[in-house]
Automatic annotation (TrEMBL):
This is Spore protein YkvP/CgeB glycosyl transferase-like domain-containing protein. It comes from the Bacteria. Keywords: Glycosyltransferase, Transferase. Residues 93-174 form the Spore protein YkvP/CgeB glycosyl transferase-like domain.
């Protein structure tokens, strides 16, 4: 990550499409509220000359916020997550977000928007926020307490292992198909 101006263990990440429902402005404002001593690595294309929301995000960013642009190489993105000390996730809509799942797999402690989707996915690996003051408090706690980060990181890896491995997900689909086939066979036997 040094090629991107980031030192291992010296940044948190935020990976998402730069749209308002992903709470980027809130997270950047909260992160930039005070000097952090770490960087915020922002993955995504921010075009302040073309988009008012992007301009607001860039304008709210302190000099500790680094705009990396889009990263499509899965190895580079995985390395970025692996070497970070946390992940900020502001998605307010949707379901099981792949970026959040990948952050858990990397053992990233999470600061996430407080909604049922994010709480189900991150579980005990997250600190949650609904507004800028709560996001600021969560980021403060995450960055100030190495013991908390270690506990959340362990919870992230455990949650990923419990719910999001390919074996577990494929096994659930396999069981669903077996159940449907068994019901279909029972229905066929009764006709």
């Amino acid at each position: 990550m040094r090629s991107r101006g980031l030192d291992a263990g010296g940044y948190v990440t935020l990976v998402c499409r730069p749209i308002p429902e992903n709470s980027i402005l809130e997270l950047v404002t909260a992160f930039s509220a005070r000097p952090r001593g770490v960087r915020l690595a922002m993955v995504g294309d921010y075009l302040p000359d073309q988009d008012d929301y992007h301009r607001a995000v860039v304008d709210a960013a302190s000099d500790e916020v680094v705009f990396l642009g889009s990263i499509y190489d899965p190895v580079e993105l995985a390395a970025l997550r692996f070497h970070g000390i946390g992940y900020l996730h502001g998605h307010t809509v949707g379901g099981t977000n792949p970026s959040l799942v990948e952050a858990l797999a990397a053992g990233n402690p999470v600061v996430a928007h407080d909604n049922p989707y994010n709480r189900w996915v991150a579980g005990q690996a997250g600190l949650y926020f609904r507004d800028i003051p709560e996001a600021t408090t969560a980021i403060d706690a995450l960055l100030a307490d190495a013991t908390l980060r270690a506990r959340l990181a362990a919870a992230a890896r455990a949650r990923h292992e419990e719910e999001f491995t390919w074996e577990h997900v494929a096994g659930q689909y396999e069981q669903l198909l077996l159940d449907v086939m068994a019901r279909a066979a029972q229905m066929g036997a009764h006709t």
